[in-house]
Structure formats: structure tokens, C-alpha cells
Write a structure and sequence with these properties.
It is a single chain. The chain folds into 3 domains: 167 residues, HIT-like (HIT family, subunit A, 2-Layer Sandwich), CATH 3.30.428.10; 108 residues, HIT family, subunit A; 35 residues, no CATH class. The protein is 23% helix and 18% strand. Strand 1 and strand 2 form a beta hairpin. The longest helix has 16 residues. The chain is globular, with a radius of gyration of 21 Å.
Length: 348
């Protein structure tokens, strides 16, 4: 039994405990049976366009009418948005501290006042959209063929680029009820925000710091070069991107898609759709059914010249514990090396 290790993620500096011995616990990775809901009553299926808000973007190769059948991908506002559009005449949430900090932060306020407001807040302005990945009722990305996957990823990029005036644009995808998905039909979400999340800001700072120390090298580019040389966490590689299990994987079978040539912004980059399809298919082959999963993209914040986008994907195999919630340190019971070995055997 391997001893636990503390590993530090190169991009964020966060610590992860690799504790492979915990995988020996009974019923590890057992999955409760899930019955698909099916297309009946699904608001995202073709022909049900009236059940969503009016579309703001769609792939319609035959020039069909908006908000009707004939589309390949379709984007609508989220009915239950996490952020809302700013009213006409607003001023970016009236937050003068900027995208990387907030004037609502009491620590900033305490530098200017002897009586900071410890409970200040700012409006949650931005945009929250849903990108429906296919007109057919696909409950998993794994049900999309290569052409459909390429169309979906192109739509993600197009909608992210539409919000390039935002401080940060986050793409996420939840697949399965345990992942947080409330609708079974495969869809991604775009969140355009007026601030840069702390995790992204920290990654940006580490990219810049590494670049300064190495006279211009890319942190993730250097990591990828070494991963390819070592090979023990490399799952697959093509002309555009590589698929790895990160050194400090926080979750079992966590994977990361990295462009082989550093590209700051996912929305302005290319590649990755084919590899994403292969990654999801490998998980399906490995676990015998399409996995519940979470997927997200890290892309350059507005104004950041030096970044390296990547797409992270985790299958939802076990719930978070109180230790993770209390400390922010994940305990991963499957080493990325053993996960990569299994995935290499399953990937097409």
C-alpha cells in the first residue's frame, strides 16, 4: 500500500493528498442506479423551443426560423441565472477596485477607513447562458458523434467570445444529477462576470511569476513538455492537444486537455473537441456506462496576455467529505499514474 503524498498543483499552488490506500474501502466507486428521464417533456429537445426563453444564438444550416426546429446547437438565457444583465446606464456594478479585487472586501475597506463595512456587497451583474449541445436527446457528451462534438465546442467558443468585454467568462458542463445538472439533456453553461474568480487570478499570477523567473517560458507549456517526456500521466496526444491526468489530481480519474502550443484564450484558440470525445468515451468504456461528470475551462481573464487555456474534466465517482470542505485540501484515493494507465487501455 503506497504511503499518502502531498502534491502541489503547479498552476494554483494548492495542495492535494494522494491517498491510494483509501481505494480499498468497501463499495468504492459503486454507483447508484439511475433511470434516464428521456425526451418526454424535455425543454431542450428539438420541437420544444417554446419551453425556453428566446434564443440568442443558434447553428441553423438551413436558415430556419429562430425559436423553431432546424438547429444543431442553440443558446438561450438561463431561466435561473447566477448573474443578471446590468441595467441601462449602470457602471460595472459600481465596483471601483477592479476585476481582481472588490471594494466590498472589508480588508480593502479597512485600509481607507477606521470603520469598514464588514457586510458590504455589490450587485451580481453579468450574463448566464445555456448552450444546448444537440437537438437530439443526448444525456451524455458521449452520445455525440465527432461532428456533433465539434459543433458543440465551436458554439461554446462563439458564446464565450461574445462576452469578451467581461472580466472573466466561465464555461462549465454538468452531466448527471450528482454533478449538479437539473436537466438531463446535454448542455453547457456560460457565465460572464465582472470580476475574476480568486482561483483564476491565482493561476494568472503564477503564470506571470514563472514567465518572469524563466525569461519568458510558459508554466503549463513546461509542465506539458515534461509530462510528454515522462509519459506516466499522459493518456493521449494528437496534433492539437494532449490529454493528461494532472500531477496533483484532486479527484479520481481527473483529466486535463492542454493545447500543445500555448494559447491564452480557449475562445480564441482551437482544437480539443476530438480529444474531449475520446476522453468521455474512455470513461464510458472504463466504468461500463456514461459517467456523471463535471467539466470546465480555464481561460485568460480580460487583459491577461500570458496564460495557457486548459479544459478539466472529472467523473463524479464519490462525494466530497468534510475534510475537503474544512481545509480546501482534496484527498484523492486514485493516483494519477494508475488512472492514466487505466485510461490508456480504454481510450480509442
Amino acid at each position: 500500500m503506497a504511503d499518502p503524498e502531498i502534491r502541489i498543483d503547479q498552476l494554483t499552488g494548492t495542495r492535494v493528498l494522494i491517498a491510494s490506500g483509501r481505494a480499498l474501502r468497501p463499495d468504492q466507486f459503486s454507483r447508484s442506479s439511475r433511470q434516464p428521464n428521456g425526451a418526454k417533456g424535455c425543454p431542450f429537445c428539438e420541437g420544444q423551443e417554446g419551453q425556453t426563453p428566446p434564443e440568442i444564438d443558434a447553428d441553423r444550416p438551413g436558415d430556419s426560423a429562430p425559436d423553431g426546429p432546424g438547429w444543431q446547437t442553440r443558446t438561450v438565457p438561463n431561466l435561473y441565472p447566477a448573474v443578471v444583465p446590468e441595467p441601462e446606464g449602470g457602471c460595472a456594478g459600481d465596483d471601483t477596485a477592479g476585476a481582481f479585487a472588490s471594494s466590498a472586501d472589508p480588508l480593502l475597506a479597512s485600509a481607507r477607513s477606521t470603520e469598514p463595512d464588514m457586510f458590504a456587497s455589490r450587485p451580481g451583474y453579468g450574463a448566464h447562458e445555456v448552450v444546448v449541445n444537440s437537438p437530439k436527446h443526448a444525456a451524455s457528451l458521449g452520445e455525440l458523434d465527432q461532428a456533433e462534438m465539434a459543433l458543440a465546442v465551436a458554439a461554446w467558443r462563439r458564446r464565450m467570445k461574445a462576452h469578451d468585454d467581461s472580466a472573466y467568462v466561465q464555461l462549465i458542463l454538468n452531466q448527471g444529477s450528482d454533478s449538479g445538472a437539473s436537466i438531463e439533456h446535454s448542455h453547457a453553461q456560460i457565465g460572464a462576470m465582472q470580476f475574476v474568480p480568486a482561483a483564476v487570478a491565482r493561476e494568472r499570477e503564477r503564470f506571470n511569476s514563472y514567465r518572469e523567473r524563466t525569461a519568458g517560458a510558459s508554466l503549463l507549456g513546461e509542465v506539458l513538455r515534461e509530462e510528454i517526456r515522462r509519459g506516466d500521466r499522459l493518456v493521449a496526444i494528437d496534433d492539437e492537444v494532449a490529454l493528461i491526468c494532472p500531477w496533483a489530481s484532486r479527484f479520481p480519474f481527473e483529466m486535463r486537455i492542454i493545447p500543445r502550443r500555448p494559447q491564452p484564450s480557449f475562445e480564441n484558440g482551437d482544437g480539443g473537441a476530438t480529444m474531449l470525445g475520446r476522453a468521455v468515451a474512455a470513461l464510458t468504456d472504463l466504468f461500463g456506462e456514461p459517467p456523471q461528470l463535471n467539466l470546465w475551462v480555464k481561460t485568460a481573464p480580460r487583459g491577461a496576455e500570458h496564460f495557457h487555456w486548459h479544459l478539466d474534466l472529472i467523473p463524479r465517482l464519490e462525494p466530497a467529505s468534510a475534510f475537503e470542505m474544512a481545509t480546501g485540501v482534496n484527498i484523492n484515493i486514485t493516483s494519477p499514474e494508475s488512472a492514466a494507465e487505466s485510461l490508456r487501455e480504454s481510450i480509442a
